[in-house]
Amino acid sequence: MLGVLQGFAVILGIIGAGYLAAVFRVVEGEQRRVLNSTAFYVATPALLFSVLSTSDPSVILSPVILVTSLAALIVAALFVVSSRLWFRRDLASTTLGATCAGYVNSNNLGLPVAVYILGDAAYVAPLLLVQLVVFAPAVLSILESTRGNSRGFLVALGRATSNPIILGSVAGLVVALLGAQVPELVSAPVEMLGAAAIPMVLLSFGVSLRGQRALQPGTGRAAVFSAAGLKVLLMPLIAWLLAKALGLGPHEVFVATVIAALPTAQNVYNYAATYRRSETMVRDTVFLTTFASLPVIAGIAWLLG
Question: What residue intervals traverse the membrane (predicted)?
């Protein structure tokens, strides 16, 4: 559990630094969007290229990735149904809410969880690949289509696939598939840029908390609680049931369940802030799941570990 606590402490510490920066007016109001834009268009593509170019693409064939991906799609579909029945949202908000329900923090929390609880950092690599190469392009395509593109969804899909995040991910995956070695002259500045991505997103997230308490009335709390409940409680349960149904071994069942219990990724907030869609809803969901996932993961480790 020490690794999990360390991962949470790092995240909350940087969010706290962003909040203090807003309190002391180092960063004010819309200035935080500079952090989001720089992270989205520069630092995050560099980070994803660095991570994927050194990964083993064969891990995407792991049965654990089948379970966690199916669980993510199921809870996302359940959020869409809930949105249609109980709290009608527009396409962008529904897409982001569904993404909050199934898109896990596989990097800055997933890695310490994988190392210190699951015993191997490679366990989160398959989900990281699927989220970046499959889920992210789909989400970004829908968000692009909500910008009023009159030429339709296919044009929006083309714009999304030219997004720097997707380009960085695809380039990194191609390098890994080819087994190529990136020269240090190129890899060193790319890695340095990538190292800034997560801190900038978390700082911006902390700045956004200034002046508005989380889960205030009128901010879409029904959608927040639905997405958070699906993410932290139902997704690990579905992953456990699927893993058992597919006949996975005890350790693989444990791994799939723990990974499914990880909180919503901060990347989703970065998408919402960049496209200026449902920022408050996504921010509150990320905030709530980050705290709620700790006792859930501890409980899973106690029951199945």
Answer: 6-27, 34-53, 59-81, 93-117, 123-143, 164-180, 192-210, 222-242, 254-273, 285-304
* Rounded CA separation 133/163 (Å): 12
Buried b (16+ CB within 10 A) or exposed e, 256-293: bbbbbbbbbbbbbbbbbbbbebbbbbbbbbbbbbbebb
How many other C-beta atoms can be found within 10 angstroms of the C-beta atom of residue 194? Answer: 21
Phi and psi torsions of 78, nearest 5°: -65, -35
Burial class from Cβ neighbours inside 10 Å (0-12, 13-18, 19+) for residue 75 reads: buried
Domain count, the chain: 1
Q: Apex CA 3: angle with CA 191 and CA 289, to 5°?
A: 85
Q: Phi, psi (5° rounding) for residue 246?
A: -85, 0
**Residue 240 lies in domain:** 2-304
Residues 178 and 182: their CA atoms lie apart, in Å, by 11
pLDDT one digit per residue (tens) for the chain, 305 residues: 566 667 667 778 888 999 999 999 888 777 877 887 888 889 888 988 887 788 777 666 678 888 999 999 999 999 999 988 887 788 889 999 999 999 998 766 675 576 566 766 567 766 777 887 788 888 888 887 777 655 545 665 666 567 787 788 788 888 988 988 899 999 999 999 988 888 887 888 788 777 666 666 555 688 899 999 999 999 999 999 999 999 999 988 998 999 999 989 888 988 888 888 888 899 899 889 988 888 898 888 888 86
* Helix boundaries (H) for the chain: 2-23, 32-38, 44-53, 63-85, 91-102, 110-113, 125-130, 136-145, 153-161, 164-178, 184-194, 197-208, 221-229, 235-245, 250-260, 266-275, 279-304
The domain that contains 261 carries what CATH number?
1.20.1530.20
pTM of this structure? 0.74
Contact between 87 and 222 under an 8 Å Cβ cutoff? The reply is yes
Looking up tokens 């905030």, which residue turns up?
Answer: 287
